[in-house]
Design a protein that fits this description.
heterodimer, A: alpha/beta, 15 helices, about 10% strand, B: mainly alpha, two-stranded antiparallel sheet, 4 strands
């Protein structure tokens, strides 16, 4: 197993002077065989999940109680709670898609808050501009080359609350081949993604580490890559020996096994002593223009995989779940009505989720505008009534301790009018 | 006296990496080798099998068929379009890969890619998928060694750019179309100015983000270029709803720039302190000419060129020098390139720029003298290394600093990729000979020693191609 070799390489190489010199002190501080963080580690964990492609909030969180809902959604409408394959009940108005039992369970346990009819300031309908704005935290696409989460991590007081002191400790980790815009900026972040390429053998790695020893950047990058890889591999191995609980269902869904792998790796990073406490994940495939499906079908499969992935994350985090908040957001919503190809087109108002042991949940936060003809935005979309930045600001303030002044000045410039939502976290 | 250090810099920093045997020919006069390329042309050899943008757009319109169907069966139409456009894209990727490997004027190839990236369109938008390659051939290559104003004009009037930044949907609020719609009581959302292209021309293509323009200038400029559109689009893509019927007005030839009078915001406009009273498309042309002459533009272009070829944070003196050359020559790009070659900073040895994935793959293939991969495989390769061809994902193009490319996960993938390649080549290639042949005197003693002590020929090759000298240029 390639991952195992890499782990061994890393462990063995701790004794190698050349690599120590190359990798710096951070290396020796990694206790790779250590189990998840001990009880003493109360640092908050934040996972930001970007649902790229515009998740259909009206299917993920169907407003079954809205009189216009069933008529607009016709063949893809979900039934009321209690009906066959109907929505899972949240309250008298809203339900959850039936493919998301873990989220309903979390809601009942008071660990899930749903936000509905949310949007960034973006009002056009281009994926790339919408995603850019979602991540840059400003008022228009491509306004900056840094992301709001990274800017928050770069603040001295925020950083202190999310990681302990360590010269080479990273404050964040991006699960993906590239660091997404939201995580780019002045704060150092790690990145990791599963590779389909064959792993290098230990001997070649050792020689490269030696060769890079005079090159501070490359030696640091290689050391980071290998430690990230080792953490991720260890996280996979830890569950390999355990009897599987609900994770078989996760594997059955498309991309389910990959979700589980990424989620376990995420947990591995977040529970590593001196490891990052903030992670980003990216998922795609939410652009359901055609044959979206109702209780079953394309979107149901994806939502099921996501729900299973979140369950896998909770399981892998162990006790650290109690300090964790997972925020799931998308660039915009989809049209209120089903289109001619049994799907939905780019819209405006969307749904977002905040789930985790640290969340003060069990409620749907929404100033529901309604789906009646006169209520729709531009006659077609769910009208946004809550600025997503209010959610971001609330989470950053209550969970990571970012001050109101910093939120205004460096994290979300031009957001004076957007007050942070309050009482989102238990710790608040 | 042959200068194997400058030859290595000429081929790596300004080219796409040396092929074995190439350095000797360059070493006699490295600067002369580059200057001579500037007297050539970046226009690719005529390629019969690659369709032009006019063909692509005509075929796309046929596939869209009638407007009613396009509306009703949007998904089916998108699938049909994708089935046609994706193979076009893949052939373009293959052609570009081959152009990079075969280039005997690699500096012109690098400059082509620089300008393609400066005027970025992105193939992740379906409308651009088939056109991105044609855009580079038609709008960029002919003007790489010409004047900036011509390059600017060709790029922003090309269908790929107009469609990418939605200028074909931009309708002036007082245009004839808007007035007609108002009389018929149509909903407002079908008529509107789209500032996308105007903003990007000012921010990305010419003045730069700190180039002293305001939101009012953007709005005025958007009005100036409203009506700049693409011929032969047909009603379905040109406008939405009931207004589509007359949007075919002045449609011109398929795939060519067309000015739609009905979409244009009429009247004189004032922007950047100047009044523009021209009629029709001439108004926008006048603005482009003025933008190209602006010292802000000179500075912006100089800064980007210096950053791309010399260092992430280039010396201010070099930027000033390039900017002066631009202004003195009225935007003659060759004069700017010459100024770049004449600066000492360009020839300094030592760790240079970290190669982009594209530069890394091309220089590796050139070093190993491998034939180009199939387009389909090439897409996978570049994608796995983080730089999907023609798809920077934003009008800002690919970023140009090491921090954007040298992430730890990205480095490991690069190393894994090159190791697989080395194993494929095996002992057919002697790394100890290849090192000096492609890196000349830029090859350091540590890498030389590491390569010579390798456990196998394959490992030696991996170590050479993963060395700090080869990862940078």
């Amino acid at each position: 197993m390639a991952s195992f070799n890499r782990r061994r390489f890393l462990r063995d190489s701790l004794a190698t002077p050349a690599l120590l010199a190359a990798g710096g002190l951070g290396f020796s501080r990694l206790a790779l065989s250590a189990p998840a963080t001990g009880e003493g580690d109360r640092a908050p964990r934040l996972v930001l999940v970007l649902l790229r492609g515009a998740l259909d909030g009206l299917s993920a969180v169907p407003p079954y109680g809205d009189p216009a809902y069933a008529g607009l959604r016709r063949e893809i409408a979900l039934g009321s709670p209690g009906s066959t394959a109907g929505a899972l009940r949240l309250d008298g108005t809203f339900g959850l898609h039936p493919a998301m039992p873990f989220l309903q369970q979390s809601f009942t346990a008071g660990e899930l808050t749903v936000f509905h009819a949310v949007a960034t300031p973006y009002r056009d309908r281009s994926h790339f501009d919408g995603q850019d704005l979602l991540e840059n935290g400003g008022l228009r696409p491509h306004a900056t080359t840094t992301g709001w989460l990274n800017r928050a991590l770069a603040l001295p007081n925020a950083a202190a609350s999310v990681r302990r002191i360590g010269a080479r400790a990273k404050s964040g980790v991006a699960l993906g081949a590239n660091v997404p815009l939201v995580m780019r900026g002045p704060a150092e972040v790690a990145s990791w993604s599963p590779s389909r390429l064959a792993a290098l053998d230990d001997d070649t790695l050792q020689r490269l580490a030696d060769l890079y020893s005079r090159d501070p950047v490359l030696s640091m990058r290689l050391a980071d890559a290998l430690s990230s890889d080792a953490i991720a591999s260890a996280a996979q191995e830890a569950v390999r020996d355990q009897p599987s609980s609900g994770s078989n269902a996760v594997r059955a869904a498309p991309g389910g096994a990959r979700y589980a792998e990424i989620m376990r790796a995420t947990a591995g990073f977040l529970t590593q002593p001196d490891g990052p406490r903030v992670a980003t994940l990216e998922t795609t495939g939410w652009d359901t223009h055609a044959n979206e499906g109702g209780s079953q079908g394309q979107l149901a499969l994806r939502l099921g995989a996501l729900d299973g992935g979140l369950r896998a994350l909770r399981d892998a985090l162990g006790v650290a779940w109690q300090q964790t908040a997972v925020l799931l957001v998308t660039e915009f919503g989809r049209t209120a009505a089903v289109n001619g190809t049994r799907g939905t087109d780019h819209g405006t108002g969307a749904a977002a989720f905040l789930v985790g042991g640290a969340v003060r949940g069990g409620r749907v936060v929404s100033d529901w505008p309604g789906l009646g003809a006169g209520a729709l935005y531009e006659g077609r979309d769910l009208r946004p009534t809550l600025d997503l930045r209010a959610v971001f600001k609330g989470v950053l303030h209550e969970h990571l301790g970012v001050t109101a002044v910093d939120l205004q000045r460096s994290v979300f410039p031009d957001s004076e009018a957007v007050a942070p939502l309050r009482d989102l976290l238990r710790t608040a | 006296m042959p200068d194997l250090l400058s030859a290595a810099i000429a081929t790596n920093r300004f080219g796409l990496g040396a092929r074995p045997g190439e350095l000797a020919g360059v070493a006699g006069d490295p600067r002369g080798w580059l200057r001579a390329q500037l007297r050539g042309s970046a226009v690719a050899r005529p390629s019969t099998e690659l369709p032009g943008s006019a063909d692509i757009l005509r075929r796309s319109m046929e596939l869209r068929q009638d407007r009613a169907e396009a509306k009703r069966e949007a998904a089916a139409v998108a699938i049909r379009l994708g089935a046609y456009l994706r193979p076009v894209y893949i052939r373009e990727v293959e052609a570009r890969f081959e152009a990079g490997l075969g280039a005997s004027q690699p500096w012109l190839e690098r400059l082509t890619q620089f300008w393609s990236n400066h005027f970025a369109v992105s193939a992740d938008k379906l409308a651009v998928l088939g056109l991105a390659g044609a855009f580079e051939r038609e709008a960029i290559r002919p003007h790489v060694t010409g004047r900036f104003v011509d390059l600017l004009r060709a790029a922003v009037r090309h269908p790929a750019m107009l469609l990418y930044l939605d200028n074909h949907l931009s309708i002036g609020p007082n245009s004839r179309l808007a007035q007609l719609a108002a009389r018929r009581g149509k909903r407002e959302r079908e008529i509107g100015i789209n500032e996308n292209l105007a903003r990007e021309i000012l921010e990305l293509h010419t003045l730069g983000v700190d180039g002293g323009y305001s939101q009012a200038d953007v709005t005025a400029f958007a009005g100036v270029i409203s009506g700049w559109s693409v011929g032969g689009l047909g009603p379905a893509a040109g406008a939405r709803g009931p207004l589509a019927a007359i949007s075919d007005e002045g449609k011109g030839s398929s795939g060519e720039f067309v000015f739609r009078e009905w979409f244009h915001e009429p009247g004189a406009k004032s922007m950047l302190g100047r009044a523009y009273r021209q009629d029709g498309a001439g108004q926008g042309e006048a603005v482009l000419a003025d933008l190209a002459r602006s010292p802000h533009t000179a500075r912006h272009i100089a800064d980007k060129l210096a950053r791309h070829f010399i260092a992430d944070e280039p010396p201010a003196s070099v930027v000033t020098r390039l900017s002066d050359a631009y202004l003195r020559s009225d935007g003659d790009l060759t004069a700017v390139y010459r100024a770049l070659l004449d600066s000492d900073a360009a020839w300094q040895a030592g760790p240079g720029k970290y190669k982009t994935p594209s530069d890394y793959v091309l220089s590796t293939y050139r070093a190993l003298q491998l034939p180009a991969e199939s387009g389909r495989r090439a897409v996978l390769t570049f994608d796995a290394l983080g730089q999907r061809p023609f798809a920077p994902g934003s009008p800002a193009g690919w970023p140009d600093r090491a921090a954007d490319w040298d992430g730890s996960s990205a480095l490991l993938k690069r190393l894994e990729w090159v190791d697989v390649l080395a194993q494929r080549v095996g002992s057919a290639c002697d790394a100890a000979t290849l090192g000096p042949a492609v890196l000349g005197d830029a090859l350091g003693a540590a890498t030389r020693a590491t390569v010579s002590r390798a456990a196998s020929g394959t490992q030696a090759l991996t170590l050479l191609l993963a060395s700090p000298e080869f990862l940078r240029r």
